[in-house]
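Protein Record: Sequence and Backbone Structure Tokens
======================================================
Tokens: labelled as protein backbone structure tokens, with as many entries as the chain has residues.
Question of interest: how does this chain fold, as expressed in backbone structure tokens?

___
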Amino acid sequence: MEGPATILTNPQTGEEKRFAFDYSYWSHDGMIEQQDGYFSIAPNNSKFADQNTVYRDLGVGVLRNAWDGYNSTLFAYGQTGSGKSWSIVGYGANKGIVPTFAEQLYKEIDERRHSSPSTQYEVKFSMLEIYSEAVRDLLHPSDDKRHGLKIREHPKKGFYVEGLKTQFVDSYDAIEKQMDEGTLNRTVAATNMNATSSRAHTIVGITFVQKQKNEAGQETAKTSVVNLVDLAGSERADSTGATGDRLKEGAAINQSLSALGNVIAALADNSNGKMVKVPFRDSVLTKLLKNALGGNSKTVMIAAISPADINYEETLSTLRYADRAKQIKTVATVNEDPTEKLIRELKTENEKLVKLLQEGNLPADIVNGDRENMSDAELAELRKDLEEEMKAELEENEREMEEMRKSYEEKLEAAQRDVVVRAIALFIINAVYVIKCCKTATVNIYSAALRISLISIKYFVACMRQ
């Protein structure tokens, strides 16, 4: 690493390839471990980049965008074991961007409440994973990993996950508990390259709303949606030693990352003046990242690479991926509107949808597109799908209006009830799991199960104290 440049040397030929980015960080060596476990820069070594350095360069901008009302996305890409989860989430005292962002957000909220007591601040949290093209809610997980939540498309919001729960959180401790629970439910497994390899893409969503009255006395809402994405690592079967389910998971991961690569390539071409269709619909991942990559969002990409010479090809591929991604241009706008205007627009939209459903008249521009080439059965199937989409849109609009009408205290009370219920459920599930493991499992599996249950007990006790 030389300043913002990353230099890659071919271990066989000695040929150097140079890539320029906004920042290039070295975190392989040159650190010392503090008593609390934090890795800081070793004396007389200015090369190592600690977690605070990365947050200062990248996370502070995401936090500033949130206060200004812009949507932001930060995602990490790279091969398995290269440090994506380390950068996004972190471990122990070495907090990543997500927990540090949340901690700083609440510090600033507390400061501004004193200086501007009339302004209300609301924070909502969600956490999902995409496992083999199925979406799972990590805060309300289902045992069935193969059939997840449905992806719908809203005319204004774009793609969203139907049924994904967003948890109202009123402090950093509350977010930390939600993250601990979500992390506990993530799909991980051991491979030859990583003992805790992520087998799914994880998306943490933080919605930040600032409510205040404007000069005309109207209540206005400035909203920022922050998505922090930990992509599963690209991998080669011969390197990871994957077989069976691990091999299938790796294939699904690579397929979705390939679709993301195609989207990035198309968007880069469009930014350079070419008119290319962007294949957002090719995977669940690219649908959910549509706004982040080609819409209303300020986006940061972290490319995590390995310094090992045996990973030269994967590292080169990651750097080329990032080099292409930096050419993409997004256009972000401030999300600020009077609350009553937003409710009125949703009501009008719902009235139109109800009328279309009652009359059985589906949007002509959609139905008539390929009507001449479709059979009656195909038309009936299309009509059924469109009706489902419209009903889902109707329900989503109703849910948004209900949320807008609720007071801060009502939202907080509902969130606290939900946390307690989930804490009890998590405690019971893991207790039963440990009992089963005690009867049938090996020592290693028993130890892992016991550790998981102890974490859930700690979470349960913390929730009971609220």
The first helix runs from residue 51 to 68. The radius of gyration is 24 Å.
